Amino acid sequence: MNVIRRILEYYFLQLCDFESTVLSTTVLDMIKKQIMDDPARGVLDYMKYHLAQVMLSYINRSDAFNDGLHFVDESIDREQYRDVFYSIFEVMNQGQHFRHMMEETE
What are the Cα distances from residue 63, in Å, to 11, 13, 18, 69? Predict the structure, then answer.
């Protein structure tokens, strides 16, 4: 999670010059909308929303990374981290950068 926090801070706050509150609000609103717009799932699954919320809550707060209040690392598998991490880039129209850095082809 610490690596994800550092990447989000460096890329979105330093390079792209987003405000952390704008980034968080934009991402969380879009992910919530995606969840609500997917009626095929039947039961609303907020796991993606909550994981994004946790990732974004650590931005600019390195002191809070290991406080254990919001998140248990072992409860989520690596693919869930990656999926939500990618979603943050997609919501902010930066999916191409994510794919490039992960050496993925479109």
Answer: 20, 18, 21, 12
Any long-range contacts for 70-75 (C-beta under 8 Å, 24+ apart)?
71/1, 73/1
Any domain includes 51: yes
Residue whose pair of structure tokens reads 């330093």 in the numeric block:
14
Q: Which domain holds residue 32?
A: 2-101
- Give me the tens of pLDDT residue by residue for the chain, a chain 106 residues long: 788 889 999 999 999 999 999 999 999 999 998 887 776 665 667 888 989 998 898 886 655 445 455 555 566 678 888 999 999 999 999 999 999 999 876 6
- Distance of alpha carbon 67 from alpha carbon 12, whole angstroms: 24
Quote the number of domains for the chain: 1
Residue 85, domain member (yes or no): yes
Give the closest residue to 88 by CA, choosing from 66, 77, 13.
Answer: 13
Report if residue 106 sits inside a domain.
no
